[in-house]
Amino acid sequence: MGSGSSNFTSTVVASGSGLTYASPIVVNPVSYAQWNSAVPTETLSEWQIHGIKTLKKVLSLPENWDSYGSPPPTVAAATTAMAILTSTTIEYFIAPRVVPISGGGLQLEWEIGSRVLELEILDDGSVEYLTMEAGEPHREDRLHLTDDVRPLFLWLLSSDSMQVAA
Questions:
Q1: Among 22, 113, 127, 144, which residue's beta carbon has the most beta carbons within 10 A?
Q2: Per-residue pLDDT tens over the stretch 116-130
Q3: What pTM did the predictor assign?
Q4: Closest Cα to residue 66, out of 24, 101, 91, 96?
């Protein structure tokens, strides 16, 4: 794909204004166009802002970032990740680890005490999840809507995991 680099705008965070992020939209196999979206920061928690900043860094990966030919995360994956990060109404939470996955996807990961939640966002924007407890798989399934993530966050924050973390 062209020179192997993507065009992105800078993330801007200013108190009381908004957070701007950009992601490539594949127009044709040779070039990228850009899209932008502003998110009012006054509606976001610190963990959400940190997650979005980390996401922005991951979105700047070049083609072949893993040396196996993987593209950077797709627009569909980035849009789903943003929807998860901005639509969650849990104020006090931990920022996720945001990592790319081969093929244009993303993974959001949270760990509290002995519990782990991994959301794998595929290149088409669909989401699969894995919960783990004490290093063992607990539950694995597909999410149908990004709203379905709230029960997973509540499971992660439940008293069992908080007791281990304390």
A1: 127
A2: 999 999 999 999 999
A3: 0.74
A4: 101
